[in-house]
Amino acid sequence: MPSWPRAAHLSFVVAGKGILNMITIASSLVSNCVKRPRAAVLGLFLALLFLPGIPAAHAASPAGPAPIPGSPLDAHNHGVPYDTGVHQIARLFALIAYVLMVATLLLGAILRMRYFERQVNRATVYGAHMTIGLSALIFGALHGLTFLYQPIWHIGTVRLLVPFLGPVQRFPVGCGVLGTELAIAVGCSVWLQRRLGYQRWLRFHQFAYLSFALVWLHVFLVHPEPRHLNLVAVGVALGAGVCLLAFLIRVLPSRSRLRQRAFRTGGGQA
Ligand code: HEM
Questions:
Q1: Per-residue pLDDT for 180 more than 60?
Q2: Residue whose CA lies nearest to ligand 1 atom number 10
Q3: Which of 52, 134, 173, 233 has the fewest Cβ atoms within 10 angstroms?
């Protein structure tokens, strides 16, 4: 058996080689993705599916891992009451809001994609997009409001309205507050459509993707569940994958648009 320093040296060499290999693979992947954007979409989609496998990054002390800030154990250690009923309601509203948000983004992307122009009834999809979007906002806001009744989070009216002020899990909770507020702004901007002009309004409306990214960060960081392999984690990753796919399809120029652009340039030169 190798001695301890030799074993440590060997493991450093192996780890170093592993990192070098990963850098080589990553650089070839990046250059391939630039050449083939559709392969990049698929790669990112698969990466998202495997994100739940990333282990939780909680600091472990010799006495065992510290309790998750805001958890029942944390409340117990601080001598603060913890309401399990409020937690269940918050969780239920959060999961409903997440599913509705994914559906809203998907329907929004369908409304804008040429492929679906003849496949779906535009008025029906538009109606569903609006109704489901509004419901997502209501459930998301109600989920946030429930934390007024869970003292361990120290969330009052001001901390509920101004992101990144709360003392417990400031960044993850702040992402939730900012994501919800951005989603509300994006939703309310419908009333300004005529005043802003369609194209300018559409640019602002696309902040919906940023709002979803913030909410996803919130969900991913605030609770360890989506970082382990379980049903909720797979659902959260699938939802994020669907939204990422919709976003990339909208952002990357389609072949028909590229052909159109080439035709226009060619026509201009002729
Ligand atoms: C004002 C905005 C928000 C605030 C203040 C907020 C706050 C919180 C807090 C403190 C937790 C931790 C709950 C716990 O571990 O006991 C949490 C969890 C969670 N939040 Fe939010 N959140 C907000 C918006 C949202 C939105 C818009 C969504 C989804 C669309 C969402 C989805 C979730 C999910 C899925 C969890 C995990 C629930 C669980 O498993 O217990 N949050 N949120």
A1: yes
A2: 173
A3: 134
